[in-house]
Design goal:
single chain, 296 residues, alpha/beta, Rossmann fold, 6-stranded parallel beta sheet, two-stranded parallel ribbon, 10 strands
Length: 296
């Protein structure tokens, strides 16, 4: 039997490429990008999607995701690259999905929240976003364009994804491992809470959402909330590296002259867990990538 087809936009990045590796046996991924002549900011180029009538899903990963680079775009407003890709481009994808009767799966971010909840509290899908950076504002505007499009949709919010290997770019886990191996000092922020997410789990979550014919907004983030300082210590301990190289710092110091970062980005997974999805905590995730890097 033929595998279900999924059109993927922006599948070559850190997260999308791992998802295709993990779900290769389940789905036939059709990867479209600027290199194949598809630019989501150009509505005419999206007519290419009409060539795949059997593909019922469009996975929209394409984004400008560099938080600080997006902040520099802010003065340009809707003429900035962040707005053109994250908002106008997403709107175009959602509209072609509505026209063709395809479900759009839009990849969003924990940054849509302002992080002002008290420590110990967390965000559910019912909480109202209040983004505080240019990046997060454009991603939230993208969410709104998807919701308003009339196309069937899933909005999947992710947070600080990491994986065992990816040559083109290092995620924060592998960047810390490399720095510590080289004897470099690491500054860990103590006044921020986040939920690092193993990308393998995102793939399994996506598979479950598709199989359950889910719609709406879902959080697929790691099941452990901690500070970057605590995360850095866990990385060092798990990989046998020198914890004395890790020192404490604050958001104000670490992100000086850069886009502001929210304090509490603890997102809840209860909604997606109802579909049988169990997202790993950071400690479990580190064990998993260690086993992938050093198989028995």
């Amino acid at each position: 039997m033929d595998k279900p087809q999924i059109i993927g936009l922006g599948l070559n990045g850190l997260v999308g490429s791992r998802i295709t590796e993990q779900l290769f046996n389940n789905y036939d991924f059709i990867s479209l990008s600027r290199s194949t002549g598809v630019d989501i900011t150009d509505m005419d180029s999206l007519t290419t999607l009409k060539n795949y009538p059997d593909a019922k899903f469009v996975l929209q990963f394409s984004a400008k995701a560099d938080v600080d680079a997006c902040e520099k775009d802010k003065a340009l407003g809707e003429e900035g690259e962040a707005w053109k890709i994250n908002v106008t481009g997403t709107k175009n994808v959602a509209e072609i999905c509505r026209e063709l009767g395809k479900k759009i799966i839009y990849i969003s971010t924990d940054f849509v929240f302002d992080g002002k909840k008290e420590e110990g509290d967390s965000y559910s899908e019912e909480d109202i976003p209040n983004p505080i950076t240019s990046y997060s504002k454009t991603k939230h505007e993208g969410e709104k364009r998807v919701e308003e499009s009339g196309a069937p949709y899933i909005i999947l919010r992710l947070a600080f994804p990491y994986r065992a290997e990816f040559e083109p770019r290092k995620d924060f886990v592998r960047a810390i491992i490399e720095a510590l191996k080289n004897g470099n000092q690491i500054k860990g922020v103590t006044d921020q809470i986040f939920c690092p997410t193993l990308i393998d789990d995102i793939a399994f979550a996506l598979d479950s959402l598709i199989k359950n014919n889910a719609t709406g907004i879902y959080h697929a983030v790691g099941d452990e909330a901690l500070t970057p300082f605590e995360a850095s210590l866990k990385i060092a301990e798990n990989f046998g590296l020198d914890t004395s190289l890790i020192t404490e710092t604050t958001r104000e110091e670490f992100f000086e002259d850069r886009a502001p970062r929210p304090f509490n980005l603890h997102l809840r997974n209860a909604k997606i867990e109802q579909l049988g999805v169990k997202m790993k905590g950071f400690s479990e995730g580190l064990i998993e990538i260690k086993s992938q890097l050093n198989p028995l």
